[in-house]
Design brief:
The protein has about 260 residues and is α/β, with parallel strands linked by helices. It is built from ten helices and seven strands. The structure holds 1,4-dihydronicotinamide adenine dinucleotide and (2S)-3,4-dihydro-2H-pyrrole-2-carboxylic acid.
Length: about 260
């Protein structure tokens, strides 16, 4: 995820020389970006530090980063299920701590981004500026909403990919060659999403616009909508992801 954000920042015109990546395993960093295998022991604190490792690594990986975070540092975390309280306990000096929930489309400047954090208006404006090249950022009114936004914005692409795959599988099952079904399903979703993004109408309205009375689309929508199937499936999917995020938050707190 950190690599996708870095790609988005570089594509947005930020100089590669302004980034330092600390990663013990990453094969290489983009040209001009400094890649270190461990946090530098003697470096001055950074203006912005982004935590991008796995949530389960936080307790072990935080210590070498603590000296890089001072009263002048904005600490950003993309770690799912790690709350502000846990981050503040580990990084007491930070000027501001902000949880950021993007997805991999940040590399193309197309990510939804949920934000929640502490800090003054100046810190928030700084974070808004940093997020601008990555996609559409929105501040959440409470941290309790971050679990759900993690499910929707963070995990959401996987749910959509599963649906594209299911559409192609269904078309293959019904007779199309699989590779052709894959191409047509993907092109259809790309076009439908672009159209919806550019339209003043809601996706719900657009679905009804595609459906001619008594036509093919209505026959298909009737299957999706029967007994609230699609709505219940999506709600259950988001609920499971949201609840796992809440559970991870409790686990991270217990790890300290
Ligand atoms: N994959 C996704 O779409 C999203 C992931 N996230 C969050 O992003 C974080 C990373 O997830 P992914 O990018 O999927 O995992 P990943 O495995 O692709 O990236 C993790 C990176 O951390 C590095 N790493 C391992 N130990 C380290 C250490 N001690 N210090 C510094 N770096 C270390 C790894 O070498 C790797 O490059 C997680 O906290 C996850 O919750 C958030 C939103 C979306
Ligand atoms: O699956 C995960 O836990 C991470 C957070 C959101 C997307 N990937």
């Amino acid at each position: 995820m950190g690599g996708a954000m870095l790609a988005g920042w570089l594509a947005g015109g930020i100089a590669p020389e302004s980034f330092t990546v600390v990663d013990p395993y990453l094969a290489e960093a983009p040209a001009g970006v400094t890649l270190l295998r461990e946090a530098p022991a003697d470096a001055a604190p950074f203006d912005v530090v982004l935590l991008g490792f796995k949530p389960q690594q936080l307790a072990d990986s935080a210590a070498p980063i603590v000296p890089l975070v001072s009263e002048g540092t904005v600490l950003l975390s993309v770690l799912a299920g790690v709350d502000l309280e846990t981050l503040r306990r580990l990084f007491p000096a930070a000027r501001a701590i902000v949880r950021v929930m993007p997805n991999l489309a940040a590399a193309m400047g197309k990510s939804p981004i949920g934000l929640v954090g502490e800090g003054d208006a100046a810190s928030r404006a700084e974070v808004d500026g940093l997020m601008a090249p990555l996609g559409q950022a929105e501040w959440l009114t409470g941290e309790d909403r971050m679990d759900l936004v993690t499910a929707l914005a963070g995990s959401g692409p996987a749910f959509v990919y599963r649906m594209i795959d299911a559409l192609a599988s269904g078309a293959a099952e019904l007779g199309l060659p699989r590779d052709q079904a894959d191409r047509l399903a993907l092109a259809m979703v790309e076009g439908a999403a672009a159209l919806a993004a550019a339209s003043p109408n809601s996706p719900g309205e657009l679905a009804d616009r595609v459906a001619s009375p008594g036509g093919t689309t209505r026959a298909g929508l009737d299957v999706l909508d029967a007994e609230g199937r699609i709505a219940a499936l999506m709600t259950d999917t988001l609920r499971a992801a949201r609840d796992r995020s809440a559970e991870m938050t409790r686990e991270a707190r217990a790890r300290g």
